[in-house]
Amino acid sequence: MFRVMFVAGESSGDLHGGGVVRELKSHFPDAGLFGIGGDAMQAAGMELLHHTREMSVLGFAEVIRHLPFFRRVLRECEDLLKSRKPNVLVLIDYPGFNLKLARAARASGVPVVYYISPQVWAWHASRVKQMKECVDKMLVIFPFELEIYRNAGIPVEFVGHPLLEQFISAHDSPEAILAAKRQFLNRNGLDSAKPLVALFPGSRKQEIERILPTFVSAVAVMRKTAAVQAVVGAAPSLTRESIQKHLNAAGISLVENQTPALQRFADVAITKSGTSTLELAIAGTPMVVAYKTSALSYAIGKSMAQIDMIALPNIVAGKKIVPEFIQSDATPENISHAALALLNDAELHTQTKSELAAVRASLGTPGASEKVAEVVGKYSQTGKMAVAK
Question: Which CATH number fits domain 3-160+367-377: 3.90.226.10, 3.40.30.10, 3.40.50.2000, 3.30.70.860?
Answer without folding.
Answer: 3.40.50.2000
